[in-house]
């Protein structure tokens, strides 16, 4: 109908006046080819410029005042800590099978300081997958049915009540400790925590309660901390609940022992709480070290790329570097450090900055090439760990309850003499003391500084306002190209689009994949691929409606499919950039070129020009790279060498994503794979 | 084109209806994972299921159901739906009966939409016939707008979410649709009943009285009356029987009488149920007063909560007046411009209300998107349809994520969520503006077909 009308109107209808914004849109849409090339190049370039644009960190919250007081931790406290280390490493204490002895030693030490002590027993929980996690409120941990008395862990919790506080706020100090096979490093971390703890029982300035959690890490550090936090944050009011750890005779035995051997009224059987947590520090000491100086590594990534407030990292960095003389490290992708192309890119940026400076002396944005390479390696690892969505340590459990937490891993240069050990205890203890004192000064929870940032070095960061530009440039062409394709296809024919069935096919296949559990990763992966292809083909033949009508519509069908693909990619990437920026950025790097270039191979072959040949090659290459397993394989090969890359690795990787409730898993299943399938179907479109 | 027609011809309407009902039932049986009834998009202070249950509990313990500022709905709703909030069947989901009522309300609304759409389509074809345009416009390509509108209403995710989320908006929507259906098929008592109940439940449908008057006065949507006159002048035979009837006051007086009767009836019922607790004045204060003064500033998908959380206290009354008069200002110009298309006018009013009302929810959007389906033939050339579709999908996915980021993760703030609310409001504005201009263009096209020469576009 519209066609007939338009035909009769086309020659006589006056051109209506168009609003400026619409005119701008039409202009962009009509030049979408040029715009998309410019935007994509600018987006990739901006990504590589991020280390240059990184700003120095600064402490944004005035109340923190790090380092304004001189540390009070003295040799007396250090020798206390040393005593605990000795007792724990003493072979006598390891006689017990369950490691209860060492927990008793720790509890006794805490009690001697006058702290409140309690044990928290927990069962390691199976991971559950909550796909709607990002759209709704968090699910409180469901009580699992099948407890067995054989597997449980014991966290030892000591609480110091603040003399100046009202008991409404607390700072948490966590030391993971495996009583069964503890290394010297774990004992040392307990020693540091104990020396700080013993200091904090005496000081008068404490305004927030201190909780020291010795997390039993025999079922993993994260599980222990998460179990304790779940208990802390979601009190259970029903006493007649499901079978509990209390029912196990072994645990009750532990309490009886306590009653006899531990003196002090401050020991309690029930779960003890303090106020809301202002911040949490996880302290670890690494056993082996290859480095030549004492370094401290900061791990901050929590689940789904959430980061703690930048101020917490700033305080630790400031105190470690300027007060204790420790070198601060954040994770780097080591293979990138030696890459020559990155070095030359850094040199180009450096020389460009020099030229700019000579032109106008106030332009100072260049950084040395080596610094650029290091910044890029740090940025890449920051992106990678955020994109994984798997927390890098037990601190991740805190972020789910909006508590800012980081893991500090001290790696001392190793020697066994006593002076060295005292030195580490003193410096580590003073660092922790300083951080706790700063956090103690806080009047509100951390809110001043950034939550959304990427680190390029311990003292440099890229904020959300800067890195979003790179991402926005990368995905800006998508809506324009989609609109121009839609307009083109619509103007020639009004035929509606089909092929909406393919995405649903993909989600189907994912479920198939999950069902297979018991085979080896490689076979499961292969079975998954086969099943996916099979169900995709059946669904395609059953549901998809190849518009087998006039030839004109069929020619335009691929354009419509491409338009739909591009708009869904745009929505998916936009959504993902809010949930987890890093995943969206990496996904955009893979998918945007493929989606923009996709064009039926037949058309290119038929055209036979050089340009179409180039496009053909690009399409084929991108079509391979953007397939998620292939992309994973390629990246892993590039970083670790192709020799030890295995097909099953991808399966394991995806399974770990699933187990950690990562949004990346959903992204791969719901956005990347369907769009890849659509793009491939465009490539092989018969027209 | 042919393919499409064949598809429309062969698709089975009832299959889709049954599929959508089954889908709702499946969702009702897994309510634990979804927790939709606590979403701010679904349950506003006016439509929340929890508040309904609370009001019923207060009533059962012989207190005023408006005590404690929890419940703000109608006392009739409390008497009708209240018992369902506490009734449980062993082994079934908790609120099964209540959910079933919502599902039935949805299906009834869809059927009414379908019947009205068929009415409108017939009226449109008749007017084309009397304009002698049947040859120029291929009538066989006309889509069955009633079926399409009903399916849009039933399969719209917004409707499904509002239905499964146990909000009362399916009932409110049904009242509005009942009113329009009654007016279209000239069942005056039914139209009056629908209008009174819809106004009683959520106040804003009161402005639908204007489209209803037009509908009763001069019949359903048709091209402007001027066109008929021009057509007949051209032919130089004034055939009175082919002219659409002029405005007649009879049905309107009839309508006014019935509306008065129904409102007295409703008020008496409310008065009886609120006899001990302050009477009708209490009801007006905590339903209409609550709507008009925007007391509850908890976040929702509208824009008013943020604004009134920020505004200074002594400006508050002024801005309350500004925001509500905003709706009233738009009534008159739209009524003049679209008086020949009363049903479309009703759609525009509903859309504007759902944009500017104090506690909007997705249920309101579900209503106007369903009504939009009536005009698929007129809106075939609407601009920005792809943009609007993608915008609606994007915003409805992004808004819960922003809410999660603000409330549960703590890394975002209120501005994040409010941004999506603003984008949503903009989308609705674009939809209304483009929709109106598309309908006016459609009328213009008809005129050109009749007169055979284009006139100035501004006329």
UniProtKB/TrEMBL annotation, chain A:
Q: What's one Pfam family the UniProt record gives for this protein?
A: Gaa1
Instruction: Report the InterPro entries cross-referenced here.
Output: Gaa1 (IPR007246)
**Which UniProt keyword terms apply here?**
Membrane, Transmembrane, Transmembrane helix
**Its GO CC terms?**
GPI-anchor transamidase complex
Organism from which the protein derives: Gossypium mustelinum
Q: Kindly list the biological process annotations in GO that this record carries.
A: attachment of GPI anchor to protein
Asked whether the UniProt record includes Membrane among its keywords, one would answer yes
What transmembrane ranges does the database entry give? 21-50, 464-487, 525-548, 568-592, 613-635, 663-684
Question: Which domain of life does the UniProt lineage start with?
Answer: Eukaryota
Q: Which protein, by its recorded name, is this?
A: Glycosylphosphatidylinositol anchor attachment 1 protein
Q: Does the keyword Transmembrane apply?
A: yes
UniProtKB/TrEMBL annotation, chain B:
**One Pfam family for this entry, by name?**
PIG-U
Coiled-coil regions listed:
none
This protein's GO CC annotations: GPI-anchor transamidase complex
What membrane topology does this protein have?
A: Multi-pass membrane protein
Q: Which InterPro entries match?
A: PIG-U
Alphabetized UniProt keyword annotations:
Endoplasmic reticulum, GPI-anchor biosynthesis, Membrane, Transmembrane, Transmembrane helix
Superkingdom, natural source:
Eukaryota
- List locations, semicolon-separated: Endoplasmic reticulum membrane
Where are its TM segments located? Answer: 12-30, 66-84, 96-115, 148-166, 187-216, 252-274, 286-308, 314-336, 343-362, 382-402, 414-440
Which pathway does UniProt place it in? Glycolipid biosynthesis; glycosylphosphatidylinositol-anchor biosynthesis
A GO biological process of this protein is: GPI anchor biosynthetic process
Q: Which family does it belong to?
A: Belongs to the PIGU family.
Protein name as it appears in the record: GPI transamidase subunit PIG-U
Organism this protein belongs to: Gossypium mustelinum
């Amino acid at each position: 109908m519209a066609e007939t009308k338009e035909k009769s109107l086309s020659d006589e209808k006056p051109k209506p006046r168009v609003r400026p914004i619409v005119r701008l849109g039409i202009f962009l849409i009509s030049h979408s080819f040029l715009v998309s090339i410019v935007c994509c190049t600018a987006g990739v370039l901006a990504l590589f410029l991020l280390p240059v644009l990184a700003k120095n960190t600064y402490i944004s919250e005035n109340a923190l005042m790090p380092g304004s007081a001189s540390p009070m931790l003295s040799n007396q406290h250090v020798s206390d800590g040393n005593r605990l280390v000795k007792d724990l490493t003493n072979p006598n204490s390891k006689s017990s099978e369950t490691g209860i002895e060492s927990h008793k030693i720790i509890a006794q030490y805490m009690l001697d300081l006058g702290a409140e002590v309690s044990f928290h027993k927990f069962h390691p929980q199976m991971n559950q997958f909550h796909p709607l996690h990002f759209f709704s409120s968090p699910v409180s941990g469901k009580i699992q049915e099948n407890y067995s008395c054989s597997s449980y862990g014991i966290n030892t919790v000591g609480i110091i009540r603040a003399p100046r506080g009202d008991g409404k706020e607390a700072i948490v100090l966590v030391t993971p400790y495996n009583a069964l096979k503890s290394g010297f490093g774990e004992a040392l971390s307990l020693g540091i925590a104990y020396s700080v703890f013993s200091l904090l029982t005496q000081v008068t300035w404490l305004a927030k309660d201190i909780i020291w959690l010795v997390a039993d890490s025999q079922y993993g550090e994260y599980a222990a901390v998460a179990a304790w936090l779940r208990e802390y944050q979601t009190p259970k009011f029903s006493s007649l609940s499901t079978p509990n750890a209390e029912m196990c005779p072994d645990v009750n035995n532990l309490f009886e022992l306590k009653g006899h051997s531990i003196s002090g009224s401050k020991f309690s059987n029930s779960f003890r709480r303090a106020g809301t947590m202002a911040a949490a520090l996880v302290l670890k000491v690494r056993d082996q070290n290859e480095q030549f100086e004492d370094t401290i590594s900061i791990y901050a990534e929590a689940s789904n790329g959430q980061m703690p407030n930048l101020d917490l990292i700033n305080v630790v960095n400031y105190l470690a570097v300027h007060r204790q003389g420790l070198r601060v490290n954040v994770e780097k992708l080591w293979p990138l450090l030696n890459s020559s192309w990155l070095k030359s890119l850094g040199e180009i940026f450096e020389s460009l900055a020099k030229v700019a400076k000579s032109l106008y002396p106030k332009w100072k944005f260049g950084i040395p090439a080596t610094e650029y390479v290091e910044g890029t390696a740090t940025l890449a690892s920051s992106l990678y760990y955020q994109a994984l969505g798997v927390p890098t340590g037990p601190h991740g459990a805190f972020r789910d309850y909006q508590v800012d937490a980081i893991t500090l891993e001290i790696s001392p240069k190793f020697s066994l003499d006593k002076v060295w050990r005292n030195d580490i205890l003193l410096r580590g203890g003073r660092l922790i003391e300083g951080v706790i004192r700063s956090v103690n000064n806080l009047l509100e929870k951390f809110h001043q500084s950034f939550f959304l940032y990427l680190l390029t070095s311990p003292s440099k960061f890229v904020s959300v306002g800067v890195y979003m530009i790179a991402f926005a440039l990368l995905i800006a062409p998508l809506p324009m190209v989609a609109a121009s394709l839609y307009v083109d296809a619509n103007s020639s024919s009004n035929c509606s689009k089909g092929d909406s069935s393919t995405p649903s096919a993909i989600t189907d296949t994912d479920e198939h994949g999950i069902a297979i559990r018991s085979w080896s990763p490689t076979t499961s992966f292969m079975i998954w691929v086969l099943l996916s292809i099979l169900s995709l083909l059946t669904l395609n033949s059953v549901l998809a409606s190849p518009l087998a009508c006039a030839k004109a519509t069929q020619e335009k069908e691929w354009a419509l499919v491409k338009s739909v693909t591009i708009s869904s990619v745009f929505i998916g990437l936009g959504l993902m950039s809010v949930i987890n920026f890093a995943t969206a950025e990496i996904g955009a790097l893979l998918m945007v070129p493929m989606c923009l270039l996709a064009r039926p191979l037949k058309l290119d072959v038929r055209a036979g020009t050089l340009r179409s040949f180039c496009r053909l090659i690009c399409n084929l290459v991108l079509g391979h790279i953007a397939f998620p397993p292939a992309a994973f394989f390629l990246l892993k090969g590039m970083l670790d060498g192709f020799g030890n890359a295995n097909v099953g690795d991808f399966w394991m990787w995806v399974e770990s994503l699933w187990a950690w409730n990562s949004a990346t898993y959903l992204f791969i299943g719901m956005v990347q794979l369907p769009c890849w399938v659509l793009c491939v179907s465009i490539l092989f479109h018969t027209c | 084109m042919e393919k499409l027609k064949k598809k429309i011809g062969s698709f089975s309407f009832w299959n889709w209806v049954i599929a959508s009902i089954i889908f709702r039932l499946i969702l009702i049986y897994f309510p634990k994972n979804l927790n939709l009834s606590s979403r701010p998009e679904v349950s506003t202070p006016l439509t929340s299921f929890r508040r309904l249950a609370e009001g019923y509990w207060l009533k059962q313990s012989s207190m005023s159901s408006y005590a404690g500022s929890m419940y703000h709905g109608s006392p009739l709703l409390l008497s009708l739906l209240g018992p369902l909030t506490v009734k449980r069947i062993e082994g079934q989901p908790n609120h099964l009966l209540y959910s079933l009522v919502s599902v039935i309300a949805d299906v009834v609304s869809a059927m009414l939409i379908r019947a009205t759409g068929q009415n409108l389509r017939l009226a449109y074809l008749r007017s084309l016939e009397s304009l002698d345009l049947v040859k120029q416009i291929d009538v066989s390509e006309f889509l069955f707008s009633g079926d399409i509108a009903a399916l849009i209403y039933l399969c719209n995710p917004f409707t499904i979410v509002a239905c499964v989320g146990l909000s009362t908006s399916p009932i409110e929507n049904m009242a509005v649709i009942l009113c329009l259906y009654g007016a279209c098929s000239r069942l005056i008592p039914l139209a009056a009943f629908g209008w009174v109940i819809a106004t009683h439940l959520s106040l804003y449908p009161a402005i639908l009285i204007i489209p209803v008057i037009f509908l009763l006065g001069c019949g359903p949507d048709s091209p402007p009356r001027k066109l008929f006159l021009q057509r007949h002048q051209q032919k130089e035979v004034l055939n009175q029987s082919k002219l659409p009837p002029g405005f007649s006051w009879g049905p309107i007086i009839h309508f006014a009488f019935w509306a008065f009767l129904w409102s007295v009836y409703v008020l008496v019922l409310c008065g009886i149920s609120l006899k001990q607790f302050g009477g009708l004045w209490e009801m007006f204060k905590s339903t209409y007063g609550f709507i008009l003064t925007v007391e509850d500033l908890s976040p929702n998908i509208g824009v008013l909560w943020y604004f009134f959380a920020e505004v200074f206290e002594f400006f508050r009354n002024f801005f309350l007046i500004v925001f509500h008069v905003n709706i009233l200002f738009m009534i008159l110009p739209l009524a003049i411009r679209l008086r020949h298309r009363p049903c479309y006018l009703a759609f525009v009013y509903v859309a504007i209300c759902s944009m500017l009302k104090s506690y909007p929810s997705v249920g309101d959007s579900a209503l106007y998107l369903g009504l939009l389906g009536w005009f698929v033939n007129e809106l075939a050339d609407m601009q920005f349809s792809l943009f609007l579709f993608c915008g609606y999908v994007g915003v409805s996915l992004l808004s819960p994520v922003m809410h999660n980021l603000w409330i549960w993760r703590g890394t975002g703030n209120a501005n994040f969520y409010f941004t999506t609310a603003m984008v949503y409001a903009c989308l609705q504005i674009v939809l209304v503006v483009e929709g109106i201009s598309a309908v006016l263009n459609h009328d213009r096209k008809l005129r050109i077909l009749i007169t055979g020469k284009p006139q100035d576009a501004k006329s």
